[in-house]
User: Fold this.
Amino acid sequence: MRVTLVAALAAALLPVSAASADTVSTPPAPVAPALTDEHGRTLTLRGWNVEDKEHRGDAALSAITEQTFRDMRAKGFDFARLLIFWDDLEPTRGHYSQAYLKKIGRVLDWAHRYDVKVLLDAHQDVFGPAFGHRGIPEWATRTDGLPFQRHPDDWFSEYFEPAVQRAFTHLYEDEDLQRAQARMWKVVADRFGHHPAVLGYDVINEPMGELRPDEDLATGARRIEHDQLTPMYNRVADAIRTEDRNGWVFIEPTPIVGEGVPTGLGRVNDKKVVYAPHFYNTAMEAGADYDPSQGWVDTYEQAVTQYPKEYKVPVVVGEWGPLNNSLPNMARFYQDAMASLGRYTSGWAGYVWCYGGGYCAVDKTGAFRQNKEQTAEPYAEAVAGTVRSSTYDAATGTYRLTYDSPTRRGPRTTDLSLPSDAWNITVEGKAKLHRHAGGRAWVTAAPGAHVTVTITRR
Assistant:
C-alpha cells in the first residue's frame, strides 16, 4: 500500500500531471508497436502475477502449484509474471542455488503444459532481506551506516528511509555490484533462455532510488530513471544477450509513474525492449474508492504512452489492481481500466493470482472475487498477419478482430482465447475456424485474406 505517497504526491506531482475529467477528453490513439512471438505473430498477453514471497530456501516457490496455471488457463489467461528473488538465487556471493533454479524450472514446466507464457521478474520490495523484505541479497546491501526504521502499517514508506535509499545508490553505481547483477541475469538467461515458456526478463521490480535534499518526487524520479536506471538496463540487457538472443527485456520506471508522471528513462539499446510500468493509484492503495471524476485513468494513459511513442517499444503493464474490489465505484474502475489497457498495451499482468482475500484474483473455491471477473474477456493471443482493429464491447459482450493474412510466407494460424466455452464465434473471409474445448480456438487463413472474427456471448 502506497499510503505515504498520497500527500507527498498530491503536493509534488499533481501540478505537473493531473487533469480533471473536463480537460481529459479523447484518450490517445495506440502509439506503441506490437509485441511479437518468434514467428512474427502479434501477441496479446492477459494474465497475472504468480508469487511466493513467504517461503525461502528448501521451501521456496512451494506456494505455486500446477493448479495455478491450470486454473489461469481455464479462465482464458495466457500470461504469468513469475516473481523470482535474487536473495534465493545467490544467497552467498558467487554461489548460485541449483535447487532454486530447479524449482523455477519446475514452475516453468507447468506453465508450458498449459500454454502460459512467463515473464521472469527479479522482484524486490524495499530492496531486500536486510530490511525485512525480499529481493537484493544482504551481501549486496550497502547502507553506509545510515538509519532505517520499520513501518509495519505502511511498508512502502520504508523506501524513503535513508539506509534503503543509499542501498539503491550503491546498487546502481558500485562497479562490483553492477557486475554481480549482470552475472545473476546471465545465470538466469543461460538456464532458461531456451525454455519454451519463457517470454522474457523483467530486470527489477519497482526500482527506487535516493532523493537529493529539497528534491520533489517527480524531479527525483526522472533523474533516477535517466541517470541510474537507463545505464543499468543497458548493462543487464547486454548481459542477457550473451545467453539469450530472443527473449524480451522488460524495463520498469519508478512507481511514481502511477501518478501520471512521464518517465525520465532514456533509450535502452536493444531490439527487443518492452516498457513495463505498473498501474497503481496511491489513494486507492490507501483504501479510497475509485473517483471517476478525477480523470486518473486517462491522466495515467496520457503520461505512460509518451515513452513508447518516443522510443517505439511495446507496452506491457506488469502489475495492476486495487486491494479493495468491493467499494461502490470499483465496477466502474475495472470498466475504465480494461478499456484503457486495451487501447495502448500489448497486455498486462494483474496482481495477484492467489486463492483468498486482499489482492487475490479468486477466492478459495477458484471463483473470481468481486469485479475481477471483468478482467476475463475474449481476445486474440497471437495474430498471424497485420491487425487492422481489435475491440471488445463490454456492454454487449462482443469482441471483433480484423486482420490481413500474410500474402506469401509466414504463419497462418491465429490463436483465440475465451474465458469459457459459452461464446459464439463467426469468421468472415477466406479462413477456417477450428474450435477446441476449454475456451480455445484457432483460425487458419488463406494467403492475403482479409479476415474478420466476431465473438459474442451465447
Remarks:
- The mean pLDDT is 93.
